[in-house]
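Researcher: Please translate sequence to structure tokens.
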Amino acid sequence: MRIQLDRKLTIRPKKLLCTIRNTPFEMGKIRLLLYTDRGLLLGDISPECLKLSSAEIRAKLRERACILLQEDDTSPNDSIRERALELLQATQEDVKFPTALDWWFKKFEIFSEESQELEATRTGLSDYYLMERSRLQKILDDDRD
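Model: Translation complete:
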């Protein structure tokens, strides 16, 4: 498994659900995503779970999979069983944590994107884009009539 860094969602719920502990948490500027070695996205990770060791993460995922399998006995939902099996398969893999360089690059990328957005707003490019988009929308709406 690997933990990948991503920029936070622009439109996001107030709280996300941690894949490891199944607890809600608030996301910071950097989103933490857990992937299997095959590239399957397991879900978000809370900053607290990032502090766990690889063995602790695998143990928590195993516990979570067992809980899901117990729920599956009471519910005829195949997706719960599939999710539990995905988590159990992932527990066989070691966790690869992001390096300090990964963190630095992601912070720099976010800073750069935020700076570009601020500059576009300051220079009025975002207003121009919205104005052009609304003009195009009017043209498309007129063509439909």
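Researcher: Any highlights?
Model: The chain is about 55% helix and 15% strand.
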